[in-house]
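Summary for the funding panel

The consortium committed to producing paired sequence-structure records for every protein in the target list. Below we show the first two records in order, beginning with the earlier of the two.
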Amino acid sequence: MTSRPLVEVEGVGRRFPIRPGLFGRAGAHVHAVQDVSFVLATGAVLGVVGESGSGKSTLGRLVLRLLPSSTGRIRFDGTDLTTAGPDSLRRFRRHAQMVFQDPYSSLNPRMRVGAALAEAMRVHGLANRATARDRVADLLESVGLKPDHRDRLPRAFSGGQRQRVAIARALAVEPRLIVADEPVSALDVSIQAEILNLLKGLQERLSLTMLFISHDLAVVELIADRVLVLYLGRVMELGPTAQVLRMPRHPYTRALIDAVPGRRRADGSRARPLAGEIPSPIAPPSGCVFRTRCPFAQPACAETVPPLTEVAPGHAKACLRDDLMLEDGRQAA
């Protein structure tokens, strides 16, 4: 795996207008994503985690330019996507694909699987009618399906099989980047493991670069090299997955780790669930957006937005407390 960046995200934000008279005055906005920055190397997997409403899916759509960003820049292999014209974006679409949480919604229910895969290839000039059939068979086999599955409609498959079809459709155009948005959260636990192993195997074999979105740190641990923790659209922590999980530097990361079912801390104590609900993005807390649920909050946290600061090589946190180190559930100076 090379360290050359494929995706560079710098200070990206996205705000949505609020309709006047509903929740606020005319001209008000909801900031779904604010000041997010990261670099994704070719062949690497970045996990994006956080509760519902944290901005994970919005970030994924911004990276794919399915949504335009309100602030910041996104570069793909050196090309600035935020200023790219239609031709550049069309070329980019060939190299970047998305796998959705609900595969049925991303497949045409009236189109047989083989036709859907072949259509994607032909649109991007990767196959013609004569060669598409063999390529479809190879794709289906690569995701654990049979070649004769090409003649079935999506409704004939189970949920896990449909997700395999959706993965095959994403791979049909030979992408370099995959954004996987909660690709296993709707599946049974046993099927989740199968799909995760499939994605990991394909990623390694094809040297795919992946942005893997999930609310579950236990899932991200199995597939991601690095992890980015989001809360109300802001980055709380960013670093190597093993390091973040072993020694989280932000209280919110600790809370997400505690939320893993059946998890106990190293001292034998039970994990403590995070109190309260995530605030509304319409009226987020001042200063640190996590302060209203943080057990370590101080008065200064209401006044200052903590910058993302490096605490170890490649590991950064957004917290005003320099002395906060959470290791195995314990606080250490």
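The next record, for a separate protein in the list, is shown here:
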Amino acid sequence: MRILVTGHNGYIGPVMTSMLLAEGYEVTGLDTDFFTGCNFNDSAPDIPQVQKDIRDVEVTDLEGFDAVIFLAALSNDPIGNLNPDLTYEINHRASVRVAELAKQAGVGRFLFASSCSLYGAAAGEDALDEEADFNPVTPYGVTKVLFEQDVSKLADEHFSPVFLRNATAYGVSPHLRFGLVLHDLVALAHTTGLVYLKSDGTPWRPIIHIEDISRAFIAALRAPREVVHNQAFNVGISSENYQIRDLAEIVREVVPNCRIEYAPDAGPDKRSYRVDFSKIQRMLPEFKPQWNARLGAQELYDAFLRAELTYADYEAPTFKRLDRIKELLDAGQLDMNLRWTEKVAV
């Protein structure tokens, strides 16, 4: 099976492509490469790749593939808030166009990296299943909803979209990201001795390791068509719903000689949701997650020790998506539409 992975040089992509290769898939990547050189380690796989903005994808880029795994996006809430119009252009309109072209090219299965963030600000303590109402609070979350709604209409006997709503990711990657809750807590504990909370610690967040996200995508690739056709799956583990203060306590126990501290203005974060992951366990029994928050915190701490990570490293643009984009903008390498300028050979 030939697989095209868009956004393969982002945070999840290198880990997922490595696991796809280990399973015997033939993998090609497509990425605009905003994060070239932002390497935490050198374990990214060497695969055929196309350097291209998803806004410029043509049907010929998609011909000959059995499946597309669509990871490409402006990848988090802060970038989405930087320019909401661009977020809608890229994460919604351009992404839907790629799905339309994939259908035209004869791609049979289209796996989309959606997000539990589309549940947004969820009232109450009930865990949300795939039938729950959407309540996104950021442009990033809204575009996930719009994409799912539009691409589900493309489904037919030849084209099967599958929407994998990932919990908040964590885990070591060749292209590491900060701005993810467990990463930030461990990095600050390691570099400053403080498990520093910017909220009051009460918001709920489901979390999942990027290797387990990759296992979910592989299970969705392998599943019979009738099981996954035009279906949404929450990707995570029901026992891995945590309040932020619980994650802080895990980090305090993993990282030596640190203590928990709350920001002076810490208050509740309106992004709070618990998620029910029973559907993916029931319908995709091949999905067998292997990580939990404590194992993830230990993995991150060990990796930061090996890398001799400093607070300056944590604060640098290298591993912060919004700061990296701003760095490229300030250097004139990207224009205000987030397209490479002529100063950059791409």
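Regarding this second record: The chain has one domain: 2-266+273-330. The longest helix spans residues 84-104.
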